[in-house]
Amino acid sequence: MSQDRTPPTGSAARETSYVRLLPGSRTPTYAFVHPVGGSVSGYVDVVAALPAGTECVGVRARGLSPQGEPHHDIPTMATDYLDELLAYHEPEQLVLAGYSFGGLVAFEMARRLRERGRTPAGTVLLGTYVPRHDVPRAERVATFARLVSVIYRVPLERLRLDGLDDAEMVDRAAEVAGRCDTLPAAYRQADLRRLFQVLALNLRMAQEYDVPPYDGLVHLVRPERPDPRDTLHAWRSRCPSGVVTHDIGGEHNELMSADRGVRIAQALAALWPA
């Protein structure tokens, strides 16, 4: 199974988003859209727990290598990702799924498919919240710092980003991470500024995304913590055809890993048996 754990090194002629995670002949094909960090490696536990013969693909962010330019809004991102997927798959055989930020993109991809007169086999939002538009600057900076700390193992206390604009914030984080001996080996030779730029852009894009209505059925996988009380109501207000909830429990940041990932895989296999 491809695990997309190593950042692109620039050897490819052109950066693409499409990644084959697991070959198979069973339908539907699960297409997992990257979360806010841009990589699809976080789906490894879910993919490994799906039934044998299940085909899984991933969609990772552009801009992680010098060959690609990062996206700046979710609708454009969704259109480009959809075009890549449809070069290999029939839309009716795709389950579009995404964790957290990735769920917003998967939702928009499903919506745009419906506009083309096609419908995916399913749409799954994994711990995805309807974004707030009133996030204070300080809160977004704090979220960026926390994610850099969690994803790249950079001690949070070293990231002093208050008062910086996005470009300065990215530069400072890359400088600190580059001097940090806890950085995973896979990222030590990467262009950290590119990775952090994608992260910062995705956070801003989520805040600016005004979730439109979608007339297809949506499956919402919910953690126990945190789960704002209005999450289900917010999605139902945008999905008149219905939202089916699947309560997995646990923390949002651990939703895709270990036993939670296994439970998600079991839920997916039950929803779409071969």
| String of helices and strands | EEHEHEHEHHHHEHEH
Kindly state the percentage of residues in helix: 25-40%
Low-confidence stretches: 1-12
Residues in β-strands, percent: 5-15%
Gyration radius over CA: 18 Å
Q: Report, as a whole number of angstroms, the end-to-end distance.
A: 20 Å
Structural class: alpha/beta
Strand element count: 7
**How many strands, what sense, and barrel or not for the largest sheet?**
7 strands, mixed
Q: In order across it, which strands form the biggest sheet?
A: 1-3-2-4-5-6-7
Number of helices: 9
Please give a structural write-up.
This protein is of the alpha/beta class. It contains nine helices and seven strands, in the order ββαβαβαβααααβαβα. A seven-stranded mixed beta sheet has the order 1-3-2-4-5-6-7. The protein is globular. The relative contact order is 0.16. Mean pLDDT is about 90; it is low at about 1-10.
